[in-house]
Amino acid sequence: QVQFMESGGGLVQPGGSLRLSCAASGIIFRIYAMGWYRQAPGKQRELVARITTSGNTNYAESVKGRFTISRDNAKNTVYLQMNSLKPEDTAIYYCNNGSPNWGQGTQVTVSS
Question: Tens digits of per-residue pLDDT, 42-73?
């Protein structure tokens, strides 16, 4: 059964940076595109960034130029580098490959 373990969240001031990590298990990681999603209080979960098996990436308009998704197939891990953080980036962040199973996520709070 696929499992995702997200980490790296925290409290950061506006303009700061964080690097999220997500370790996947129970899947052949290298054959899946991976996505980072987020869910803010009272809002639906949304796709933030996606990376294909060949390394092609795409981003939500709201994070373009600030966030970078990457992957390490040897470690079964996907990363999200988040720079120039804004209060509206506050949310729980999750990774997923299209599975109905979700991890617990990691909380990101951007506040002064």
Answer: 999 999 999 999 999 999 999 999 999 999 99
Contact partners, residue 52, CB within 8 Å, separation at least 6 = 33
Residue type, 110: V
- In which region does residue 105 sit, left (phi positive, over 0), alpha (psi from -120 to 50) or beta (all else)? left
| 4 DSSP 8-state letter | E
b/e map of 13-44 (b: 16 or more CB within 10 Å)? eeeeebebbbbbeebebeebebbbbbeeeeee
User: In this structure, what are the phi and psi dihedrals at residue 27, rounded to the nearest 5 degrees?
Assistant: -135, 160
Amino acid at 65: G
HSE at residue 33, side-chain half, CA atoms within 13 A, is: 11
